[in-house]
Design goal:
By secondary structure, this protein is α+β, with helices and mostly antiparallel strands. It is about 35% helix and about 25% strand.
Length: about 525
């Protein structure tokens, strides 16, 4: 394939009557990557990866196709993996595949300048883990779900993009030497990877599983935090790095970066990833995410404005706020909630005039509060029930979740549940389901707000008393659910309706019934 011309007045090559090749933007061991325009889709920018002509063997073509297939499936599962949209051959029989065009900085370039500040590290590490989690959960191969190990996790294979909705968005790149784990498949018997980041078992050519990627992730996380590698080989040779990975004790964080101050739990987590024996490391990326989540919650910017003590505001009833401890939560302590937001909600959240005032109803509608638009769930309940929710707030338990259905009609089920043993002792929890039509501007906007804010508020009114809100409960999402909602918000632009909205709504209603049957028994257990 001829590289595209650089002069703007030269007719550029049109690949297969579709892709107008523009600039060479990258070279790798397997081929070249070009920026191009998809002329069938209005000239949208894409990236085209073309296998090098010198590698046109059956083995390399098979590996190239496997890479494209893996990225095509994983890109549908996670926004943190590059999406592949096409695979074909040019007129000379050279294979190529088409992927989304990404603009950003390699993590290696960022870390080379200086180590990451803690909050930024936690946000980026979580996204890397989410991408790896999608790979480790596997792809469909002939009807069987097979895990994918990347085998080359390192900073240069992590791209950091600036996204208007998410801020910094992480993409895990280059699945060129990844391995599909199949029960009857042959495992690797030769070394493939980057020596500095390879696990001991990878250096030895042994059978690998997802824990090998976790070791490489540990090396990379150490480097993200300190700017240094935790191991130092005597020589930059295979033998030197083999000895370092198999025998050398990783240095501690202080020796690598004397001025660093990290949470002990984070240091322990990174060093656990670097254990020589795979059984001594975290056994899955999910375990790592569970340990990163409370750290990110603790060091997030929003915690800087946390109120010093709970209590009742002078102009409003007692504030009831759930503390983020899981899907089902006690909601008696104010955590991460600014009193100014609560005060303004109590004062300005009047029941909308277009909604009935004497019915037990619930709906979603956002308001601009403290110069920010907040997603809100509104509910009108009987006076006795509201009184007990307020008077016995220590027993309140909450549950929130979201299910997204891209097809046949894009729709999301946004669920909130509230249980109080005093107010709900004779029946199940109070449920507030909301169905967001993601083919409408309102549904898309609500989903985007939920992803941006990472929380919402439940506003409770007394039946027949619309003039004043009686109860405000904050509902923060955990980091994983927030990231998932952000993914849906971006991917939603590609979803198309192939049926009417009621079809998807009926599917989600069936899932809602299953959810209630599963969650009600846990919610109704008495709080301590």
């Amino acid at each position: 394939m001829v590289p595209p011309m650089s002069t703007p007045d030269t007719k550029l090559e049109l690949l297969n009557d579709r892709y107008q090749m523009l600039d060479l933007i990258g070279k790798g061991a397997m081929g070249r990557v070009y920026k191009a325009r998809d002329m069938r889709l209005g000239g949208a920018h894409v990236a085209v990866k073309v296998l090098s002509k010198g590698l046109l063997s059956d083995k390399m073509c098979g590996r190239f196709r496997t890479e494209a297939s893996i990225c095509a499936q994983l890109g549908q599962k996670s926004i943190h993996i590059v999406r592949v949209s096409d695979y074909d051959f040019d007129s000379d029989g050279v294979p190529y595949y088409v992927m989304e065009y990404l603009q950003g900085d390699g993590l290696n370039e960022i870390v080379r300048k200086q180590p990451l500040e803690l909050r930024r590290f936690l946000a980026l590490a979580r996204q890397v883990c989410l991408g790896l989690q999608a790979a480790h959960q596997g792809i469909d191969v002939d009807g069987v779900l097979c895990p994918i190990i990347h085998r080359d996790i390192k900073p240069s294979n992590i791209l950091i993009m600036q996204d208007q909705s998410l801020g910094e968005l992480v993409k895990v790149l280059d699945f060129g030497i990844s391995k599909v784990l199949q029960e009857d498949g042959n495992q690797t018997s030769t070394f493939m990877g980057t020596m500095v980041y390879s696990s001991p078992e990878q250096m030895e050519g042994r059978e690998l599983d997802v824990r090998s990627d976790i070791y490489s992730l540990g090396i990379m996380m150490f480097e993200m935090l300190t700017g240094q590698i935790p191991l130092q080989a005597e020589t930059h040779t295979f033998a030197g790095w083999y000895r370092a990975h198999t025998t050398q004790v990783p240095r501690n964080f202080k020796s690598a970066h004397p001025s660093i101050h990290l949470p002990r739990a984070l240091e322990s987590l990174v060093l656990a990833c670097l254990a020589k024996e795979a059984r001594q490391r975290p056994q899955s990326v999910i375990e790592i995410l569970k340990q990163l989540e409370p750290l990110e919650e603790h060091y997030s910017i929003s915690r800087q404005s946390r109120p010093t003590s709970p209590g009742t505001t002078p102009t409003a009833p007692a504030t009831v706020v759930p503390r983020q401890t899981g899907a089902i939560e006690d909601s008696n302590l104010p955590d991460r909630l600014t009193l100014s937001v609560v005060n303004e909600l109590y004062q300005n959240a009047c029941w909308p005039r277009d909604k009935p005032t004497n019915q037990l109803i619930t709906f979603t509608r956002s308001l601009k509060i403290c110069e920010k638009r907040l997603p809100l769930v509104w509910a009108m309940l009987p006076e006795v029930e509201v009184q007990k929710l307020r008077d016995h707030a220590i027993f309140n338990r909450t549950y929130k979740n979201m299910i997204c259905l891209p097809s046949p009609h894009p729709m999301a089920l946004w669920v909130t549940a509230l249980y109080n043993r005093a107010g709900h002792s004779d029946r199940s929890a109070r449920w507030f389901p909301q169905y967001l039509d993601l083919a409408t501007d309102q549904g898309r906007d609500t989903l985007r707000l939920l992803g941006e804010r990472g929380r919402y508020h439940l506003l409770v009114f007394v039946q027949g008393q619309p003039e004043r809100c009686s109860l405000v409960i904050e509902m923060p999402f955990n980091a994983q659910l927030q990231s998932l909602i952000q993914e849906w918000s971006i991917l939603n632009a590609t979803w198309r309706s192939v049926s009417d909205a009621n079809t998807s709504k009926n599917i989600l209603k069936a899932e809602f019934d299953k959810m209630k049957a599963k969650i009600n028994p846990d919610l109704s257990r008495l709080t301590r």
